[in-house]
Design a protein that fits this description.
homodimer; 713 residues; alpha+beta; Beta-galactosidase, Chain A, domain 5; 2 domains; twelve-stranded antiparallel sheet; 16% helix; hydrolase activity (chains A, B)
């Protein structure tokens, strides 16, 4: 279904009016957008069921060395459009996505400069998207942004789930506070990171999740960040007005644009039901359809990795401790003494392959396989990796053949050390090397400060790099899972080979001192709004000192919570991150990780409250299998769900992996129980979840022989 | 002949002495280097025939966030070496180069930090080279330069030929002044350029040429600029001490180094005869031998170009005037209206091919052949060119076939618009495209400010780019002639596919308002010290308004001077830059350009005085042909030379192209005479050269039939 209606448009030719206004409702009529041109300044408002979401907020852009596009405007033309279609993503939380909006296209003219600007609003049932468009014109060709000055005026001192605005990291724990408290909490919110550049005591990142005192959930983010600087939000905490704060380049400029062109979409997702925030597809809908014609090579997958042992410090990425600095042009590793702790040895990798094969995993990631890790970050080193030369103890051919014989696909790892030019120089060879050796997917990393010095992780220039790497990977039919890259903005619709990102505080921080127990109840409302996250769940051993006596970190999660993450943290790429020996200890719980799907026909958001809990049910794509995940915040809680997402008049077997009564993320994380029941779509479950806990359920159609002795839920 | 002697070395183990000194003489004994460690600070001096060249000058480096390598040193070890060899360059002013020096290697230890630094001095008969070396050590691995603090203390207020220190251009006219006058003249020395970033009122560029009141000629430059920032010189004009001033990156850092590693060589060429400065091979000798094993594909060549007509504004690089901005991703040139002035049309290119073929030129350069020139510079545009897509009126296949049928090799043009990342992204495809289409040589350009923004033309990061482009070109067997790149430092020895650079004010400025008439008497003492220059001589029509009525530029040179440049401005790549129709008007004078060689067995520097005149004779490589060039400064002059460079007891025919008596660069530049004489190695010539004038001579062995009627000189 694809429908486009252009309504008769109004046409104004430089008719100066003091105030000109226009409104538009969402398809279901619950949201209303107001646009006003007041004394030449464009503003907008948004209400939901009559409640204010965005108070009058200014729109516009400040240019460098040119008159600004902030005021002095007149209405030139207005167009209304409707749009309604259903499209099928290559992978996703559902196999069919509806894209339904009312559109208003406001053509502004700035008579004093004879320049034109279009502001395009798309109003969906679940929120608003809008962007600036710069049509081709004689008086605006190339221009430099000093700042985008888009306001989001809040109607009160909302509760917010925020991380500090930063040009070089997104890897912070979330702070939950009133908007007015951000300033006072900023210092403690900025925890240490290998690269970090904060910019304002009231600057925060998107996606920003908020809750109002009158029960609205509001999410601010952006969609289709292409050839533009990443948007942060800076709060005027007297007036509770957020304003866009773009990421600058080395000289402080915020973007280089040309007409015709446009900004990314700025999004406001809103509902009085937190579950609707999770169900929103605005971010994808505002991106372009897939540019990959044949996407048959893009396959969701579950994988293991020679990784957690390095993250915890049990083993090392690097091969030798002999050198204070190495130069790949001249080093001869055959002369180096192995440090005896190198993780990516042929024998160790084969051990993982054996385990992954035995338990039906699709892939195995190996980090630290390639030369150069001895001084890999913190040195502003240009030529840090070549991406094609294995360490002497990593027999690439033997491993390739062994993995193939076992039916496990090897996953490539490209740590760039944020030396972006070096990576681009090697990209074609590195991708070709992957294809030559049977690797079809890739984890890339951008640890440390960006080279060239002065750039940062989220400026336009580096955003363009991430995009370049994704598009070039598509040429090679390679799937990309980029870590430390800019947080996603739905670009995975257009380039579905971007199967995941990290771009937030992932599981690794549980081995770097730990994350807050309720972290995973917030991420789906923030980071995941833009796209899937390679969160790397599945940690069964919470006491990291058991892996590495020098590491006193504790994984702030119960084992059942870890299982639930495979459902609640949507990703077409899911890792079982812990060591084989830990899974072998809890092989019954491990069964859930083995069973759970990674691609879905449909999702149901059963319970949700950011920072507190969320419960999601999903149907596996093309299969009669359902999976439920519940993750819980800092306090224990009773989760109440019904199974009405199942088909009626059928009987199913549900295997429920729950926290035991005495479970607790800190004191007793491995206390879990597994029970099996018969369920139907009338069944209900009232289930305890521990602090930092949760539960996971796998549901299959009941065949008679298997149901013997099972009781009904 | 290759000889290496290591003399017995002295060994000091942390013996604290207040002053420790050491001297070393050049092989011929005329230069003496003094090194002194005075209270822990390393200093050096240099004398020539007992006259001071460098007064006591400090050595050392200031590091960022680390203790400096400036003082607190003790002598750890001293080594003396001698070296003498003769090597054969792939191309050059002579076919055999002697590399003969005495070496002193001073190992310093800084006990307070347990760090080591080596200062290596090489003393040649014609000057000094020295560099810093950072041996592998546990307390110095990766480090950042805040500044290199190498001093060059002058013994007086010398006369200098200088251009303003600048991070983004070298394209200035030279100013001739006392050192003490630099500050006062700086403002007028900084003329406009598309990209320019000056840094100090007493900052100047190298190679810097000076003359002392007691008759010494001193040249300061660097050799082997590899993975390091370009060195400028900043003058303390109270004490007449130059200090190194490295080119910073976007955040002001001056270089990222690791041990083991080294700085480039700092060079001091000195003589009491200006001709010896021109004859010096120090810069090449301090570079590594060629890394290109089979260099048979590197061929000196003479070429023409569809270029001068764009430079003068007679035609355009771009195809259409329709667009204020274009985007190569979406533009469709088939919809564009041609502006009617596009230079690189198939018909026009074929006209040049015809002319080049008729007159025996090796190659033809065509600029503006590829899409993207409509908004190519000044806009900080990232994706500005793709380097492979011709304009619709440039039929690449037809031109390729036509050129081949005529025996003319097409020369590729890659203007990068200084968008360095974009160029690197396209480099492999662009080079492969060249090979696929029969192009073996390339002119590249870096017009405008560097992208990424904040970097500049001469920082370490961008120096590394130029080097990358050269080395990758070698992989494809492509010769590179890079314009606006960093001025050369003898790297053409190591990578002889770097056949030329611009990297100074070239002939194009004669169409941008003109250059000083004596400019070409200075360049061989400055810019050419580092390597060949694609100066693009051969302009016969000095009144640019005849090409383009809107351009009132005047070429400040006589026609005879233009001929002489093919001898005096050494390059294995020489252009005949003017239009075919101008050569047809002066076809007798054009004969010299047709005849002159581009590669040499031997060169004789007959007369030389920077800013005033120079006369050079050269023997064509492998041929019994000699060519002489004289270029003259602002005043008319009588040049007196003997032909003793010819073989004895033989008779030769000399064709002499001279300024006519009434010639003058401004009033009467096209007044020339051509005469033929019989000469022998006893012949003498006393020849008038006009202001901005000169003469050129071609000499061939006399065969009886051809000498009939010729009189002896």
């Amino acid at each position: 279904m694809r429908l486009r209606l252009t309504l008769p448009f109004l046409f104004f030719l430089f008719i100066p009016v003091l105030v000109w206004s226009q409104t538009m409702k969402s398809p279901n009529g619950l949201l209303e957008l107001g646009f006003e041109l007041n004394q030449g300044v464009p503003t907008y408002t948004l209400t939901y069921k009559g409640k204010p979401v965005i108070l009058p907020s200014k729109l516009g852009l400040e240019l460098k060395n040119k008159p600004s596009l902030l005021d002095g405007f007149e209405i030139f033309e207005l167009k209304h459009n409707n749009f309604d279609e259903i499209w099928a993503p290559v992978w996703g939380e559902e196999s069919q996505i509806r894209n339904h909006y009312h559109e208003m296209e406001i053509h502004l003219e700035q008579p004093s400069t004879s320049r034109n600007l279009i502001i395009r609003f798309r109003l969906f049932d679940d929120g608003l998207g809008f962007r600036y468009e710069f049509p081709a014109q004689s008086n605006l060709a190339h221009f430099v942004l000093k700042e985008e000055r888009t306001q989001f005026a809040m109607a009160g001192d909302h509760l917010a789930f925020w991380i500090a605005g930063d040009y070089d990291t997104q890897e912070y724990d979330y702070t939950e506070s009133r908007l007015s408290e951000i300033r006072g909490l900023m210092e403690s919110a900025i925890t240490g990171n290998i690269s970090q550049t904060s910019f304002s005591p009231t600057g925060v990142q998107t996606a920003l999740m908020m809750k109002t005192d009158d029960g609205l959930y509001i999410n601010l983010h952006e969609a289709a960040l292409i050839n533009y600087s990443t948007m942060h939000l800076n709060l005027d905490d007297k007036n509770m007005i957020f304003e866009s704060w773009l990421t600058p380049d080395a000289i402080g400029d915020k973007g280089y644009l040309q007409a015709p062109g446009q900004s990314p979409w700025r999004t406001v997702i809103v509902s009085d039901d937190a579950r609707e925030i999770l169900a929103s597809r605005i971010t994808y809908n505002l991106n372009e359809p897939s540019k990959i014609k044949d996407s048959s090579w893009i396959k969701p997958m579950k994988y293991m990795g020679v990784w957690w042992e390095m993250i915890t410090g049990k083993s090392t990425w690097h091969y030798t401790d002999d050198y204070a600095a190495i130069d790949l042009n001249s080093i001869d590793y055959s002369n180096a003494r192995p440090n005896g702790k190198h993780g990516a040895t042929t024998a160790n990798v084969k051990r993982y392959i054996d385990f992954a094969a035995e338990h039906g995993f699709d892939g195995l990631l190996v980090e630290g396989w390639n030369v150069g890790w001895e001084d890999w970050f913190g040195n502003f080193k240009d030529y840090v990796f070549d991406f094609v030369t294995p360490y002497p103890d990593f027999d690439l051919v033997e491993i390739r053949q062994y993995a193939k014989s076992k039916g496990v696909e090897m996953i490539m790892h490209h740590e760039t050390s944020a030396s972006v030019r070096n990576y681009e120089r090697h990209l074609d060879l590195a991708y070709q090397f992957m294809k030559d050796n049977g690797y079809n997917s890739l984890k890339s990393g951008y640890v440390g400060y960006i080279l060239p010095i002065g750039e940062n992780h989220y400026s336009q220039w580096i955003v363009n790099h991430y995009q370049y790497a994704i598009e070039k990977a598509a040429d090679y039919q390679i799937m990309v899972n980029a870590h430390e890259a800019v947080r996603p903005t739905g670009v995975g619709r257009t380039w579905p080979n971007l199967i995941a990102n990290e771009s937030a505080r992932g599981t690794e921080y549980q081995a770097f001192g730990g994350s807050k127990p309720n972290h995973v109840t917030i991420l789906p409302f923030t980071r995941l709004i833009g796209g899937p996250m390679d969160y790397t769940p599945g940690i069964f051993e919470m006491d990291i000192s058991k892996l590495n006596p020098e590491n006193n970190s504790w994984v702030n999660s119960t084992l059942a919570n870890q299982l639930a993450l495979y459902v609640t943290m949507y990703s077409p790429l899911q890792m079982a991150a812990d060591l084989p020996e830990h899974y072998e200890k809890f092989i019954d719980a491990f069964q859930f990780i083995k069973d759970v799907a990674v691609d879905w026909d449909k999702s149901w958001y059963l319970e949700a409250e950011p920072g507190k809990y969320l419960t999601i049910a999903r149907k596996a794509k093309g299969k009669k299998e359902w999976y439920v995940g519940n993750v819980n915040g800092n306090e224990s809680r009773l989760s109440n769900i019904t199974f009405d997402f199942l088909e009626p008049n059928k009987s199913y077997i549900a295997t429920i992996y729950t926290d035991a009564k005495e479970a607790h993320y800190r004191n007793n994380p491995q206390a879990y129980t597994i029970k099996r029941f018969l369920v139907s779509n009338k069944s209900k479950l009232s289930q305890f979840s521990a602090p930092g806990g949760g539960y996971a359920i796998s549901i299959t159609e009941a065949d008679k022989s298997a149901t013997k002795g099972l009781r009904k839920l």
